[in-house]
Design goal:
With 107 residues, the chain is α+β, with helices and mostly antiparallel strands. It is built from 2 helices and 4 strands; from the N terminus they run ββαββα.
C-alpha cells in the first residue's frame, strides 16, 4: 500500500509441502520487489526475516540469487546479459529442502 506499481512474473520450478523453488522475472525495478511480492503471496524467502522468512536448511542468508541479468548499457543502449551459476550454499539448501534444480531457467 502506498508503493509504486511493480510487476513480477513468478514461475514454479519445483516444490513440496515445505518449500517451493521459483524463478522470478522482473518487469519493473523496485526496491525489494521479489521479496515483497513473495511475502505478500504468503511465501517469503527462506531466511528473509524482514519479510517473514525463517532460516532453514542451513542457509544463513536470504534464499535469493540472480541467475541471469539482462539490461541495456546506459551510454550505448546495447543489450547486455550476465549469467551466474547457483552458489554452493544455495545449491546445498535446495537439495536439503528436497527440491530439484536442473540448471535451466525460464527465458
Amino acid at each position: 500500500a502506498g508503493g509504486k506499481p511493480a510487476r513480477t512474473t513468478i514461475t514454479r520450478l519445483d516444490g513440496n509441502g515445505e518449500a517451493t523453488l521459483v524463478a522470478c522475472r522482473l518487469h519493473t525495478g523496485r526496491t525489494h520487489q521479489i521479496r515483497v511480492h513473495l511475502s505478500v503471496l504468503g511465501h517469503p524467502l527462506v531466511a528473509d526475516v524482514l519479510y517473514g522468512g525463517k532460516p532453514a536448511w542451513g542457509l544463513a542468508r536470504q534464499a535469493l540469487h540472480a541467475i541471469r541479468l539482462d539490461l541495456r548499457h546506459p551510454v550505448t543502449d546495447q543489450p547486455l546479459s550476465f549469467e551466474w551459476g547457483v552458489p554452493p550454499d544455495l545449491s546445498d539448501a535446495i537439495a536439503a529442502a528436497g527440491l530439484r534444480y536442473n540448471g535451466l531457467h525460464p527465458a
